[in-house]
Design goal:
With about 230 residues, the protein is of the alpha/beta class. It contains 6 helices and 16 strands.
């Protein structure tokens, strides 16, 4: 599994001849540096509907003629925009051609802010993505919650991508607890330093993880790691 960080919470994940993008907030993301037109994927995966995660979903899906996999209410909205969709829900899993997606709990909110209205996006979620023989847990936007222990106990997670920005999600202290509960050997911090409200010291966070025997991995946008 190859993971490329595209800023904020956007990840490009490749393996076994397949490629997916999670939460493709590229346009308007000061830390991205990637154009939607450069993205070549087999699917777009969404954790929830906020604009800083939904981002360039429709354009990427249309350009690649690929499905958007999302919580069902958000998938329904995407269908209205003329793209292929797979609407799922928390606790459900599906084996796609070359990769598997399972949706987990996340404690947050979910809506799209449009020019003329706000669209309800269903329940927010995390994603367990199995691809290339490895499993990534993308926690989405979430607070710390006790069932992270169960997620870790029931799944062999090779790497966890966790928000650390605070203010809108859990901060570094809670994310460190989450990392221990999940039990993955590697953790990639997400959802920080995009806006002033979520500025954090990722190096300090990873130093704390090291004390817990967990490898924290800091990536700049467009940098990759192999799992």
């Amino acid at each position: 599994m190859k993971i490329t960080y595209l800023g904020h919470s956007a990840l490009l994940v490749e393996g076994g001849g397949k490629s997916v993008i999670i939460d493709p907030f590229l346009t308007g993301n000061p830390n991205s540096g990637v154009k939607p037109a450069d993205i070549k994927v087999d699917a777009v995966l969404l954790t929830h509907a906020h604009n800083d995660h939904f981002g360039d979903t429709i354009g990427i899906a249309k350009a690649n003629d690929c499905p958007v996999v999302a919580p069902v209410e958000l998938a329904n909205y995407c269908t209205e925009q003329g793209v292929k969709t797979v609407g799922m829900n928390i606790g459900g899993s599906h084996q796609f051609d070359g990769f598997k997606v399972k949706y987990t709990l996340a404690f947050h909110s979910s809506s799209l802010t449009l020019e003329d209205r706000i669209v309800y996006g269903g329940e927010p979620a995390g994603i367990l993505l199995t691809l290339g023989g490895k499993t990534l847990y993308h926690a989405g936007d979430t607070a710390l919650f006790g069932d992270m222990k169960i997620i870790g106990e029931l799944n062999k997670i090779d790497i966890a991508a966790l928000p650390i920005g605070d203010f809108f999600t859990m901060g570094p202290e809670d994310a460190r607890i989450a990392a221990k509960w999940i039990g993955a050997p590697k953790v990639l911090p997400l959802h920080y330093n995009t806006f002033p409200a979520i500025e954090q010291d990722s190096e300090a966070f990873c130093a704390g993880l090291k004390e817990d025997g967990i490898e924290g991995i800091i990536l700049n946008s467009r940098e990759s790691l192999d799992v």
